[in-house]
Amino acid sequence: MSKKLVAGNWKLNGSLGANERLLSALAALPGVEMAVCVPYPYLAQAASALQGVSLGAQDVSEYASGAFTGEVSAAMLAEFGCRYAIVGHSERRALFAESDAVVGRKALAAQAAGLVPIVCVGETIAEREAGQVMDVVGRQLAAVLELAGADAMARMVIAYEPVWAIGTGLSATADQVGEVHGGVRSWLRAQGVDADGVRILYGGSVKPDNAAELFAVNDVDGGLIGGASLVAEDFMAICRSAVVKQN
Q1: CATH architecture of 5-23+31-231
Q2: How confident is the model over 202-226, as pLDDT tens digits?
Q3: CA 136 to chain centre
Q4: Is 82 helix (H, G, I), strand (E, B) or coil?
Q5: How many CB atoms lie within 10 A of CB 30?
Q6: Catalytic: which of 33, 62, 89, 91?
Q7: What residue ranges do the domains of the chain occupy?
Q8: CA angle, corner 163, sides to 50 and 64, nearest 5?
């Protein structure tokens, strides 16, 4: 993997003034790809402010157009210069009842419009304690693979986010992260996906003080950052931890 990807997920946060201060403090770094995924109303502001940092959305509709009030299509996001769209974040799955199949359709819709879907997968604490981590993650990935096929899935980004580590201050250990990330890449290979080029990000309470350790783990190709992406100094520090030195 030539460069890691660090993507900030602002979630339901932001204002024009706060965004201006945050975006102006972000600066592209050599050796790492940076992205920010902002709320829909702020796409234009972010697109005009970002220099060398990719733009992403936090969700996307499975529909291309039609009578779907409140939905935002992948083509609309592409017109704003989005490169990425997050699909299947655990908050969407849990709070808005998005099924694995819906997530798969959203990933396919994003890709059809030229966006790169960041497909989120992860287990609850009960599922981890029951030894079902890869059963759950495999099921979530299989729903995408079934719709998209192996070639298309090879061009997606996977984000492993254990539900119990999102916004809790808890983070999976380096060993836990390495086990799941290695499991995800092995699962992809077993399904006929060219997995070597698939970026697998870790998300779940990544902070400046644990980022370097997490990014050094085998098969960790960057991070999907929540709360820390709202603080420019913290986000930049995390991005610096992901820089891959070029020979």
Answers
A1: Alpha-Beta Barrel (3.20)
A2: 998 899 999 999 999 999 999 999 9
A3: 18
A4: coil
A5: 10
A6: 89
A7: 5-23+31-231
A8: 55
